[in-house]
Amino acid sequence: MTLSAAVNLTQMTTSVVRTRIAPAPSGSIHVGNARAALYNWLFSRQNQGVFVLRIEDTDQKRADEAAYGAIVEDLEWLGLTWDEGPFLQSKRAEHYASAAERLVEMGSAYRCYCTPEELDTRRKAAMAAGRPPGYDGRCRYLSAEERAAFEAEGRTFALRFRVPENRTIAFDDVVRGPVVTDTAQISDFVIQRSDGGPTYMLAVTVDDLEMDITHVIRGEDLLASTPRQILIREALGVTDVPVFAHLPLLVSSDGRPLSKRWGDVSVRAYRDAGFLPEAMVNYLALLGWSFDDKTNIFSVEELVEKFSLERVGKNPAAFDVVKLEWLNGIYIKQLEPSDLAERLVPFCVRAGIDADSESGRRLLVAVAPLISERLKRLDEAPSMIRFLFGPVTLDEKASKTIQGQAEYLRAVADRLAALPGWTGPQIEAALRELAAERFLKPKQAFQPIRAAVTGTLISPPLFESLEILGKDTSIDRLMAAPQSVVV
RNA sequence: GGCCCCAUCGUCUAGCCAGGUCAGGACACCGCCCUUUCAAGGCGGCAGCACGGGUUCGAAUCCCGUUGGGGCCA
Questions:
Q1: What is the pTM of this model?
Q2: Could you say which residues 23-82 of protein chain A have a Cβ atom less than 7 A away from any atom in strand B?
């Protein structure tokens, strides 16, 4: 049932779709916000609409330039480009003030002189008496004399919205269906603080209105605030409402709310761990939305084409890093060697590998095909390829493996030294021939070589690794390794 | 405390609205194959409709309740 008629509201009829994302500037963007941003972005792109970025920084304490910069960077990294903004709420104070003023003039808002302490006391008393804790309406019908008295006392005031009685607010949520709220459930709420600053409720309503937002796609935590925003719109003389779509909340893998105490909740943390933005986007899209019963991999283009709010689910989705890693591995495998190499550079540098040079990049491009199918995250690469960039120290297992193998390794070195060329296949042929002569199983024949050359028993494919390492270095390591572990 | 929301394998989910195919796919896990290590890949397996009523010839699907989880209000 559509109950919009009950409050005389109609859906907006603007032809151009306009969506927005409105994060608070508290550092790197939260994955929940990132998902909301993605859905808004996909929806606007799909409809050739406009995607607006707005920074909700009215809470001055948390607002700072660096934090807002982090949001911009994160969105850019994800590829979620916006068409308008960023608009800072902190620079739109006059808009909220004038809206508040209009509401007061029209009798939809009033001055409340209650102090926080008084409110707290009365709230506790109400709860103790089994009554609802919301505002009790003390200042709702103050006379001019009473107001003058309070002000003579030096009291400051906040502005409260006068919630109409006996009304039903209804709207159709694309995700949740009809949502009906009785105004008896809503107590008069503050729209302007005593310091003159707007509350979230006022700011978001004024902004969505003035920015002509047609589709509000946001987290379910804001579902309950929607009737109040509709009330403010209405009081401001607006008779239509945007389309609302409240997304299911994201929870952690144990089903608890996603919080900083649980683990990584910021996009930046995933970026630093070596996740690709394309994998992140694909994974986020699947958290709460599905296209059919079998498709998991979606390019951004496919998402733009296939995404639909109607297919967003209602139940909370658990953020599963393991599945994200699987997806990330798939995207890494699809990268061109040069692309992978370039993305690897910062991770190598961070791990102390001098890859940020022409020769370093050459090595990375060469080794990229060998490690791409072994990576789930970019930050796993340095340990796999370190042996290419400098001397190696044999780890415990590697040392043990070359124990008593000095003669064999010397033979290997000799055989390789005699090689006319230095390609993987040539190296492989020579080493297999030597193994056959000595009746060695592949594992017996190759693990000591791997140990001596890479310093570990786990490495990229041996022959290609030797090829990239180079003939001289390879032979040097084969000869030197036994000495390094003399017991 | 009040109002509201949600409920299919461990996880993401398809199926639900318009009841009737062994409840389908993916991640993870286990096994086998491939194999110079580690991966990747191939094949196979384990595993679910929260519970209780009701409606119906028939319920994952519709209704009610219970339980569990969550959100908001301050």
A1: 0.91
A2: none
